[in-house]
Design goal:
The chain has 337 residues and is an alpha/beta fold. It starts with 17 loop residues before the first strand and ends with a helix. Helices cover 46% and strands 16% of the residues. Strands 2-1-3-4 form a four-stranded parallel β-sheet, with helices on both faces. Helix 6 packs across helix 8, helix 6 runs antiparallel to helix 11 and helix 9 runs parallel beside helix 10. It is globular.
């Protein structure tokens, strides 16, 4: 009978035990070109969480019409916001990642912080593989969508689950699914708005514009609308605004279905006719400025407001890599180390 020769001396299991934070945002094309945008949209719009249409029908529409027409138009819009540092979303996300790592290490936490994008690069799969190779077996995931929604936060979880389903050793995982009513988030948002009011004066009305979503999603049980309502209530209470001093709206519609209302563009066209010609607009669903804030809000919607008779329009930047925002992220993830 053969003798038991023992286990291999080096199996690597004892080298594990590290903690990592995974920041996750939507994504961006690699370049403001039609070909790069086409690759990005092909991945984004193929996600069944994003477009809930029978797959065969939708794939025919997507590849037969949308990906033939939309990439060139979208690339032209990306070119308007692209900077020397590249995509605004990517540039800001990288700064957030670096500042959060510095913050956690300053607070004496031996934690590495990693960035992934749900669509495009760096991918969720490749980032998780890098974390695994670095000996991380406890992961805290923070999708940077303040208000949970199935097409964003839910899809982020799908991507993580899809990758981890291939692994033999599953790391300890904590997934933060929403922070719409987190006190640090509300305080940071209110402080940024207050700073704007102090610098430029209080507008006639504050517009809080959230990313849109088909109304059907709400009826199917998605809490996004309710979470947006709560963020709005908490922030406006913190600011001491009366009901006639603010309005909550929804932007970025796609397709012909009925989406959550009131619509941002329709509201901005109507406000001057109601005597409101001085507004400030903030987008509490965006943790970093991107095409939807810098081009759609500042460019397109700012133009609509002026064309309708508006006189003063200003956009209050997303929290981006503001210190209060980074502190909020740190406080969200630290309890799960």
């Amino acid at each position: 009978m053969a003798k038991f020769s023992g286990l291999p001396k080096e199996v690597g299991h004892g080298q594990r035990g590290k903690v990592g934070v995974l920041l996750l945002n939507l994504g961006t094309p690699d370049a403001p070109t039609a070909s790069a945008v086409r690759r990005y949209l092909a991945e984004f719009l193929a996600d069944p969480r994003v477009v809930e249409i029978p797959k065969l029908v939708w794939m025919m529409i997507l590849h037969g019409i949308i990906l033939r027409v939309r990439p060139a138009k979208s690339a032209a819009l990306y070119q308007k916001v692209w900077t020397a540092a590249g995509s605004p979303l990517m540039d800001i996300s990288l700064r957030q990642t670096a500042k959060l790592a510095d913050k956690l290490n300053t607070d004496n936490h031996d934690v590495s912080v990693h960035l992934a994008m749900r669509y495009g690069s760096p991918s969720v799969a490749s980032t998780l593989q890098t974390m695994h190779q670095n000996g991380i077996d406890k992961i805290v995931v923070l999708p940077l969508y303040p208000q949970y929604a199935a097409p964003t936060t839910g899809s982020a979880f799908d991507a993580i689950a899809a990758e981890l389903s291939k692994w033999r050793y599953i790391p300890s995982l904590h997934f933060i699914n929403t922070y719409h009513d987190n006190a640090d988030f509300i305080n940071a948002l209110a402080s940024s708005i207050t700073a704007d009011f102090e610098a430029h004066g209080k507008p006639q009305k504050l517009v809080l514009s959230y990313h849109g979503m088909p109304e059907r999603n709400l009826h199917l049980g998605d809490p996004y609308y309710c979470f947006c309502m709560k963020t709005t209530r908490l922030v406006t209470e913190k600011l001491g605004l009366g009901k006639d001093e603010f309005v909550m709206t929804f932007q970025s519609r796609f397709g012909k279905a009925k989406w959550l209302q009131p619509y941002t563009d329709a509201t901005l066209k109507a406000l001057p006719q109601q005597g409101v010609r001085d507004i400030a607009i903030v987008c509490p669903a965006f943790s970093a400025d991107c095409l939807e804030t810098l081009e759609e809000i500042v460019g397109e919607n700012g133009h609509l407001f002026a064309e309708a008779g508006g006189e003063k329009f200003r956009y209050i930047a997303a929290l981006n890599d503001d210190d209060a925002h980074i502190t909020m992220m740190a406080n969200l993830v630290k309890p799960h180390f």
